[in-house]
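Minutes, project check-in
Item: structure for the 327-residue chain
Input as provided by the requester:
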Amino acid sequence: MKLGVLGAGAWGTALACASVRAGVETILWARESEVVDTINNDNENTLFLSGVKLPVGITATTNLADFSDADIILLVTPAQHMRAMVAALKQYISSTAKLVICSKGIEIATGKLLSQVLTEVLPSNPVAVLSGPTFAIEVARGQPCALTLACENDNIASEVAAMIATPMFRPYQSSDIVGAQIGGAVKNVLAIATGIVSGLELGENARAAVITRGLAEMARFGEVFGSDSETMMGLSGLGDLILTCSSTQSRNMSLGKAIGEGQSFTDIMRDRRSVAEGAHTVEIVHKIAEDKNIDMPITAAVYKILKEDMDVNTVMNDLLSRPITLE
């Protein structure tokens, strides 16, 4: 069996490490030739995961044709580039190759989940979703984690799980492919909100309130799409939300914190190499919430700050002044 990882950012590199440790032949595609060189020659991704020695056995490439014999392909490109990347990949892979979505987001141009995008571009290939509370650097170092592996076909989920699982990398199976994606996408928006709370020094009570009420927003959003409420309480929902909202290791929380501290969104994004998906996802989540009349005040607050350039203190004061309702 052979596994391909499409995208050699921090998370893609970490997943390649987990795959190699599971004893799987692993190939990692990167856009940047310097990333390929440092991985193949020095066992390190100096551009996106500097300082972490990678396990021997990862082969990096810039050639999509090297995925032609891959049995499983982990898709780790940014959500807004997923359609273009899988379209480019299509000519090289088998129609039986199993595609596992490892990115978190919703396509802004269409409002579609990434699984829907894959169904349009590669209708014959089986699709699964891998999502959960994970920081790339810890996975790359071989520290323990648990994730949700969602697939509508239980046999495929079992096959993928058996291939990549180790005592330190534990995928738990689910059939709720929709809920696994929504949890991963919406929590990035909520992480920005908790970062803003931290940057404004509003305290831990306020952060806990945002996490809890944010979970309610996530559940309401997922319900409209038909996701299982239990998924929102699992690893790809509540678990991922807690992790991402609790540490500035999270790109989304660190973005929010910088905004709360007074930095402008434009300046922050200009200086960043890595992608904070929540900064893009908030646009489409807010639009869908408004179109479908889903009550998501925290998401709306983040949207106003990032996309309408409203004053962060004014927006947060308005959020705190909302009428008291039943929980």
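Outcome recorded: The mean pLDDT is 95.
No further action items on this chain.
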